[in-house]
Amino acid sequence: MPHFPESRFITSSWQPHQFPPDEGAEVAFAGRSNAGKSSALNAIAGRKDLARTSKTPGRTQLINFFGLDGSQRLVDLPGYGFAKVPERIKDHWQELLSRYIEARDSLAGLVIVMDARRPMTDFDVQMLDWSGANGLATHILLTKADKLSRGEAMTVLKQVRAQVEGVATVQLFSAVAKTGVDEARREVLELLNKKEAGKSRAF
Ligand SMILES: Nc1nc2c(ncn2[C@@H]2O[C@H](COP(=O)(O)OP(=O)(O)O)[C@@H](O)[C@H]2O)c(=O)[nH]1
Ligand SMILES: [Mg+2]
What we know:
single chain, 33% helix
């Protein structure tokens, strides 16, 4: 599988007018703060430090855009479900996320990153519904699978798969053990390539 030696940080946006030009195709990574979004994005890009990862939850408050190559991008969305921020900041995130998800033409699909030990939280389910309501293809990464035994991981995979059947695809993932990285990269590339081939949202 190709990695992306040419991948690079494009910009961080705090306002929709700061988004890079809405052309080509991009896949966005959503999930709770600390779920492992930035680590997953780095593993998929094959670059260690592309998106900053942090042990401090909630630090990524902006929408971060990364160029893979050509006109394809990966997008690190602000984490949701982080309690320790003022209401007005939360409102701003909500607004920024809505503007992004509902209006971004080049958005090819969403990757929802969930901690395999605590998948399908209320926020995750809301995100999944929202994604579907906007006609976006959705792929779920059950990450930190290295924290579970093989048996536990398979059980979680089966359960989540049954819950989202027909709505999203699901896989196990670990940025630490590098499990499922090729599969995730394949899914992301497929979304990007389909988008560039002219397929838009389901409706
Ligand atoms: N064991 C394990 N830890 C991980 C994995 N992915 C991320 N982490 C850790 O989880 C924390 C949050 O990761 P980060 O990617 O910054 O999460 P984000 O807030 O969703 O972007 C960091 O301490 C990472 O090192 C993984 O696959 N396995
Ligand atoms: Mg992050």
